[in-house]
Each structure stands twice: as C-alpha cells, then as structure tokens.
C-alpha cells in the first residue's frame, strides 16, 4: 500500500487518477485488487471451459493475485463495517497464471498437460506488468478470515 504507483499503460494511469480523487475525501477507502473472477467470468472459469472441451490453455507467465468476487465483496463489506480508510490491498495469494491453470485442472480432475505457459498472449494490445501481485499482509491482519488462499478462491469457482 505504501509503494509508489508506477502505471505502465493508460488503464493503470486511470486507476491511479481515480484513487487520487477518492482519497481527496475524508475517511475514504480505496481497495486495490488483482484478477477478480466469478463463477462464469475471469481466468479460472476460462480455464475450466477450455479444459472441459479438451482444448489447450495458453497461460501467461506473469504473476498476479487472483481473488473471487464473492470473497472480495465479503472483505470490502468487513472493511466498511470496521470503518477503515486509506489504501488497502485485498487480493489472493501471489501465483502465476500458469500455476493457477494447472491447479484449476487438478482440482477438477482435468488434464493439466493441456496447460502451456507462454510469455505473451496474442491479441493483448496494452502493455502488462510481469508481476501485478499485491502485498496483502495488512488486509490479512485486519480481516481475520481466509480471503486469500488459492484453495479457498478455487473452491469459489468450483461451486459455480
């Protein structure tokens, strides 16, 4: 939360400007997150659909901190109840998309050999950081429930 932001694309810059605007108000809360997914949207769901069809999954080599929308919403609600303010990172544990795709395959009894790690994905136009994971130690200390573990987040997508 204390690191100096350094956006590498327009999307990142727009998020930074939005944060600055929000933080100009007293007692505002800015939640930074990474890789939000739900039952039918996001990378884990994409991996499940592809593997269930027997299709190859190309997984970007970079790192991020995926979190299910359910767990993110629960965490934000708790932060509001606790009347927290400032900037806080709420995300899952650091993992590569490749490792996540392999775990999704294993957790669902699908073939992990269909997952292939790639350095870039065709069709991506904007520059992306190699590591967009977040330090969530402060949120872990404040929230008191498991919003971050890969296992708990994958259980959310399996339930969907």
Number of domains: 1
* Spatial extent as radius of gyration: 16 Å
- Named at the architecture level, the CATH assignment is 3-Layer(aba) Sandwich
CATH superfamily: NAD(P)-binding Rossmann-like Domain
Main sheet overview: 2 strands, parallel
How large is the count of helical segments? 6
Widest beta sheet: strand line-up = 1-6
Question: For the record, what CATH class applies?
Answer: Alpha Beta
**Beta-strand percentage range:** 15-25%
Shape: globular
The SSE string, one letter per element, is HEEHEEEHEEHEHH
Low-pLDDT residue spans:
none
* Average pLDDT figure: 88
Helical/strand content category: alpha/beta
**End-to-end CA span:** 31 Å
Task: Describe the model.
- Helix 2 (43-52) crosses helix 4 (97-107).
- The protein has a single domain (10-158), classed as 3-Layer(aba) Sandwich (Rossmann fold), CATH 3.40.50.720.
- The chain starts with 9 loop residues before the first helix and ends with a helix.
- It has helices spanning 10-23, 43-52, 69-81, 97-107, 137-143, 150-158; strands at 29-32, 36-37, 57-60, 63-64, 67-68, 86-89, 95-96, 115-118.
- The protein has 160 residues and is α/β, with parallel strands linked by helices.
- The strands form four sheets. It has a two-stranded parallel sheet.
Keywords:
two-stranded parallel ribbon, alpha/beta, 160 residues, Rossmann fold
Condensed summary:
With 160 residues, the chain is an alpha/beta fold. It has helices at 10-23, 43-52, 69-81, 97-107, 137-143, 150-158, and strands at residues 29-32, 36-37, 57-60, 63-64, 67-68, 86-89, 95-96, 115-118. The strands form four sheets. A two-stranded parallel ribbon has the order 1-6.
């Amino acid at each position: 939360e204390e690191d100096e932001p350094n956006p590498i694309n327009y999307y990142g810059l727009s998020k930074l400007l939005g944060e600055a605007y929000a933080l100009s108000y007293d007692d505002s809360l800015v939640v930074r997150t990474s890789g939000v997914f739900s039952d039918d949207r996001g990378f884990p769901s994409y991996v499940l659909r592809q593997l269930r069809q027997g299709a190859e999954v190309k997984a970007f080599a970079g790192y991020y901190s995926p979190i299910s929308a359910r767990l993110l919403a629960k965490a934000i609600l708790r932060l509001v109840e606790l009347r927290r303010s400032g900037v806080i990172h709420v995300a899952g544990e650091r993992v590569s998309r490749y490792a996540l795709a392999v775990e999704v395959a294993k957790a669902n009894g699908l073939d992990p050999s269909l997952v292939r790690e790639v350095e870039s994905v065709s069709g991506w136009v904007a520059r992306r950081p190699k590591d967009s994971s977040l330090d969530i130690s402060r949120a872990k200390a404040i929230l008191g429930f498991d919003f971050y573990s890969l296992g708990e987040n994958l259980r959310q997508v399996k339930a969907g």
